[in-house]
Amino acid sequence: MSSSANFIVSKRGMIILKDSIDIETTLEALFDWFMRLDENFVKWDNVHHADFKLLSGETEVGDKIYFEEIVNGVRYAIKGKIIDKIKLDEKFVLSFKTSSRLGTHLFYWRKSQ
Fold it and tell me: How buried is 67 (Cβ within 10 angstroms: 0-12 exposed, 13-18 middle, 19+ buried)?
């Protein structure tokens, strides 16, 4: 991991939180890790991540997920649906929209130039 940046952008009344890190790994390794979020989510950050379930049992577009996240001491139970899953030689995208329609989470990896 070589760098990190956090920032907030306000756009048309919406707040967009962006967090990025540089990780030295292969696309395959990171993609496989994300495809096993049910095993890795809590390990990733056991202070803020409490639970993760693949409600549909898979990680395909249309499949449903559930996770619990703790933000400022408040535990949020969030359901969502995977809306995008793309894996190419130079990048992968995994995103989901919350059932409440209040948020979209996007995980994006691309090969360094």
Answer: buried
- Kindly state the average pLDDT of the residues 48-64: 95
Q: Are 6 and 19 in contact (CB under 8 A)?
A: yes
pTM of the entire structure? 0.77
For 5, 7, 67, 101, 104, the CA distances from 14, given in Å and listed in that order, are: 20, 14, 22, 12, 11
Question: Side-chain half-sphere of 47: how many Cα atoms within 13 Å?
Answer: 3
For the chain, give the mean pLDDT.
83
Average pLDDT over residues 86-112: 85
Instruction: Name the nearest CA neighbour of 67 among 107, 13, 7.
Output: 107
To the nearest 10°, report the CA torsion of 24, 29, 18, 39: -130
Q: State the CB neighbour count (10 A cutoff) for residue 37.
A: 20
Burial label for 65, CB within 10 Å (0-12, 13-18, 19+), is buried
CA distance 68 to 17: 18
